[in-house]
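Subject: design request, 242 residues
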């Protein structure tokens, strides 16, 4: 028979895991909400590298900040200090210094900071219009088995956005299909990018259906709902004119 202390420890462990799961879900939702700001308006009309670069920059900056915020308390302080220096260099528009600090974390950091550094470095490269180099870093995140699956998938979403200007839109749609499943942390963003890919294939009607998947989700925030509705209006008009 288990002693009272053993039962207490088991209950405490259960509560701790439940708290961690709730915090992780909150983190994913916060990143999803932040990704909406100033990101998708106009992308369905122009797929230039400059516009796509801004979209990837915002995604990576927000995701990077959230990962850093969630990990800083438990990771080694020297890695946190390096990340803070890189962030300061980015804010000061010192791209060369930021790149060196991020590259150091990419090779010396633990799994969490390595992921963060690659995402942030990719956003810097996209801002510099160095799309192939940025996509190489995103590929490294997506292929790193030590990285949390949610952030490997985030790298796939970023890479899909980066490829809207050049990749086969059907291939983009296929790559994102698993991420559009109900309950996936990046489902809404994956559906938005998939809708853009569908529109590039000349099928705005399917793009509307993809966006409806977001609008019909009761968990969709009002801000995202407004953004998606504006996209849907454009695609619905295009579909009606065919």
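Subject: RE: design request

Done. Sequence follows.
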């Amino acid at each position: 028979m288990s002693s009272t202390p053993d039962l207490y420890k088991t209950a405490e462990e259960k509560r701790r895991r439940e708290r961690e799961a709730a915090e992780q879900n909150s983190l994913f939702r916060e990143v999803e909400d932040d990704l909406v700001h100033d990101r998708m308006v106009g992308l369905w009309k122009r797929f230039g590298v400059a516009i796509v670069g801004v979209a990837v920059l915002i995604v990576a900056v927000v995701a990077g900040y959230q990962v850093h915020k969630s990990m800083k308390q438990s990771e080694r302080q020297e890695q946190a200090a390096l990340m803070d220096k890189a962030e300061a260099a980015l804010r000061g528009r010192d791209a060369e210094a930021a790149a060196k600090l991020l590259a150091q974390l990419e090779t010396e950091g633990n799994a969490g900071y390595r992921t963060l550094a690659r995402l942030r470095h990719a956003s810097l490269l996209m801002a510099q219009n160095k799309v192939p180099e940025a996509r190489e870093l995103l590929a490294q995140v997506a292929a790193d088995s030590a990285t949390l699956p949610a952030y490997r998938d985030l790298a796939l979403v970023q890479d899909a956005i980066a490829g809207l200007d050049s990749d086969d839109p059907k291939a983009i749609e296929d790559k994102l299909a698993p991420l559009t499943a109900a309950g996936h942390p990046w489902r809404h963003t994956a559906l938005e990018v998939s809708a853009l890919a569908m529109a590039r294939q000349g099928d705005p009607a399917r793009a509307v259906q993809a966006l409806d998947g977001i609008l019909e989700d009761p968990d969709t925030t009002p801000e995202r709902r407004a953004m998606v509705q504006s996209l849907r209006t454009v695609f619905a008009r295009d579909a009606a004119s065919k």
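Confidence is low (pLDDT under 50) at residues 33-62.
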